[in-house]
What we know:
Blueprint (H helix, E strand, L loop, with lengths): L7 H4 L9 E3 L17 E4 L18 E8 L3 E6 L4 E5 L3 E2 L3 H9 L2
Antiparallel strand pairs: 1-3, 2-3, 2-6, 3-4, 4-5
Amino acid sequence: MSFQVPTDKFLCKHRKWEKRWRPCFDSSDGSNIVDSPKEDQYLVGLSFTAQSQGELTIEKGDEVTCLFKNESGWWFLEKNNGDVGWAPASYVDISRLALLYQSFSLR
C-alpha cells in the first residue's frame, strides 16, 4: 500500500483538516490544534519493514507519536529520532498501557 507523505500544510500546528484525514489530537472546541504530543504516544508491538517510499520502518518496542490516522488503517507516525512515515496501525500497541507501564517501571 502506498500513501503520499502529508505536505507542510498538514504538518503545521494549526490546520484545517481535509475530510479524508482524521487528526490524532483533538482539542475540546473542535479546532484540531495539536497541543499535547504525549497523549498520542504509543509503543510498537510488532516490527514492520517499509516496503515503499513514504512508509516507516518500525521495530518492536519503539516509541512513536501518531500524527495522522488514515481511514484505511495506516497511521502517519514519528519516531523519537525524527523519522516519519506511514505504518499499519495494527503493528502499534493502541492500548497505551504498555507505554505507561514502561515509564513507571523505569523509575
